[in-house]
Amino acid sequence: xxxxxxxxxxxxxxxxxxxxxxxxxxxxxxxxxxxxxxxxxxxxxxxxxxxxxxxxxxxxxxxxxxxxxxxxxxxxxxxxxxxxxxxxxxxxxxxxxxxxxxxxxxxxxxxxxxxxxxxxxxxxxxxxxxxxxxxxxxxxxxxxxxxxxxxxxxxxxxxxxxxxxxxxxxxxxxxxxxxxxxxxxxxxxxxxxxxxxxxxxxxxxxxxxxxxxxxxxxxxxxxxxxxxxxxxxxxxxxxxxxxxxxxxxxxxxxxxxxxxxxxxxxxxxxxxxxxxxxxxxxx
Length: 283
Hints:
Layout: H1 17-22, E1 45-46, E2 49-54, E3 63-68, E4 73-76, E5 87-90, E6 99-103, E7 112-117, E8 120-123, E9 134-137, E10 150-154, E11 163-168, E12 171-174, E13 185-188, E14 197-201, E15 210-215, E16 218-221, E17 232-235, E18 244-245, E19 259-261, E20 265-268, E21 279-282
Antiparallel strand pairs: 1-2, 2-3, 3-4, 4-5, 6-7, 7-8, 8-9, 10-11, 11-12, 12-13, 14-15, 15-16, 16-17, 18-19, 19-20, 20-21
């Protein structure tokens, strides 16, 4: 899958970051709070930073990564096995205020990184240090300069390119190009004052990314980007903050499936059903 990360900022304990780089699995999960200290959902955040998944090398398999808020450093791994990152580079500022996003912005089959600062999207077409290759406005900023709503990314129209979206409460606003403008698709999914954790993936292998929610370990996935009920529902993982949902295509079958992670261990499943993890590793 492309474009599976969904982000809002939580409080992050910077003191654990160096330890995690040196020895995997030493950080504890941070409180699930936003910048104002209120309970929030929508980001895979631990004391180490933000947990990410993406196909970093274009081999068709999504693998783990994380972003360090304090230094603006990305750590990406090309195999779902215990070990150190294959890539480490900076994109972002020290004490970065932007929300990290991941997607295939240019349709070349490789996921790369980006930041959303307020209503400005800064996307890079390679996993390396450098300036943004794409910069455009989508969405609004709050008085503190942060996005209003949760930035999401996915291939909404099946053209092989990931583009932006926003989730505001239970309203999803999806755009089909990496450019300024209004939403191409707007619909509701979830409850008003939704507490579920948003996820995005190609759940049925049809080439379109669609949306979902994870409520207390129950996955509620939808196979179209329209209002309606869940097409797939199952339990996997413990409720937040013990496990953070991180879906992806772990077996290169063009279908995204469930995964969860904490600050030490990642647990991936190759079907959207209840059961035990088929892939487990530390990173």
